[in-house]
Amino acid sequence: MASQQKQANMLWGGRFTGGLDPLMVAYNESIYFDQVLHKQDILGSIAFARANFNAGILTKDEFDKIETGLQAVEAEWVAGTFKIVPGVDEDIHTANERRLGELIGKDVAGKLHTGRSRNEQVATDMRMWLRDELRAIEAHLVSFLKVTAQRAATEVDLLMPGYTHLQRAQPIRWSHWMMSYGLAFASDLERLREVIKRVNRSPLGCGALAGNPFGIDRAAMAQELGFDSLLWNSMGGVADRDFVAETLQWGAMLMQHISRWAEDLIVYSTAEFGFVRLADAYSTGSSLMPQKKNPDSLELLRGKSGRAFGHMAGFMMTLKGLPSTYNKDLQESVEPMLDHIKTVADSIQIAEGVLATLATQPLKMRAALDPFMLATDLADYLVRKGVPFRETHHISGECVALSEKTGTPMNELTFEQLQSVDARFDKDISEVFNYDKSVEMRSAKGGTSKASVLEQIAVLQAMLE
Ligand code: ARG
């Protein structure tokens, strides 16, 4: 009996007579997560009521009552006094309308939903919410990139080993390393700005799927709600969760960059490398080993990238194979979206904090440079004397072998030893063994010379204005 009574209260209760399995009630309801959309739901409802008033569906008096009532409902959400009725308030749309009816009477409140479907409502709410969140994320990303650019400018004179296969390869500027990720994140920023355009399109007025029969002014509603444009097909408008999928794809890529960035810094912060020291604010100790200072912030950034990818992969599977327009499967877009946005927004801010506060260890960076990292420079020296590179590569390799065989660092081989390998080495060969010179030689655009790195910083800064 009790469950039948509840049933009658539900929005679509009219044609259902039997009670729902209690687990089915819980399985179906989304109110416990979609309540975060309360503000968007209220604003969307006010815009919809206004458009119905302008279309002659509501009187001025009815519209005023609905608007004032909806504002009162929103005030309850903000104050934390809104009482969800378990088993009745299936989702945020149902809950707000139920409460509106209690505040202004069902006769007027019952007119709000004229021509409207929750299918268009949920898509509208999600798009408005996501648009605002992505704009906030854009600001976080810009801020992180400003720290990157600033730090790269300040520390442009620090040299360290550059790696391939995690083996010492060639000397680079520390700032060149920072900017290598900075420019990847800059591409993420470009992509984000693209995604926001497609998120910020209005489905309101699409109805359940076929459109609105009361001549509602969709453009006016879209404008009131801050949308840039409309979704132009009502069936597509209620079916579309590509705006969520695209956001998750975007975030998965960004987190993949953050993860690799974090991995480098984890390696660089070990005693074996010692290039950087994390601030206490972003490290934790061990409960057992008193000496430990662990890079938990960076490990979490790396770890959470898996979770971000999971949101994306899982939701793509949810979408795959859905028939046309709205299906309840689409409700599964909300939770991954919420968790993804929190994960990405927090991660960017943590990454910024880590980078802004870490201390570099310039002497350790220098000490890790090894004369073998100049073997290419040695080959290039002979190239400049007209020797074909394939030959110089071989000659330089022989010098490496001689150095290894005699246990002499390559820069300490005598002039005679070098000449025994190839007579074309002149006295000025000693100038090759200079790390600063080596990085300055790489002066073509995009290289690790000071001017090239400063130019990269300028390119990045131009994107941040
Ligand atoms: N809570 C639902 C969702 O998030 C709202 C739309 C319900 N529409 C429906 N036809 N049952 O998708």
UniProtKB/TrEMBL annotation:
Superkingdom in the source lineage: Eukaryota
Fumarate lyase N-terminal domain ranges (all copies): 14-310
N-terminal signal peptide: none
Domain Argininosuccinate lyase C-terminal: 372-440
Keywords, sorted A to Z: Lyase
Alphabetized GO MF terms: argininosuccinate lyase activity
Family named by the database record: Belongs to the lyase 1 family. Argininosuccinate lyase subfamily.
The name this protein goes by in its record: Arginosuccinase
Organism field: Sporothrix epigloea
Lineage: Eukaryota, Fungi, Dikarya, Ascomycota, Pezizomycotina
Gene name for this UniProt entry: ARG4
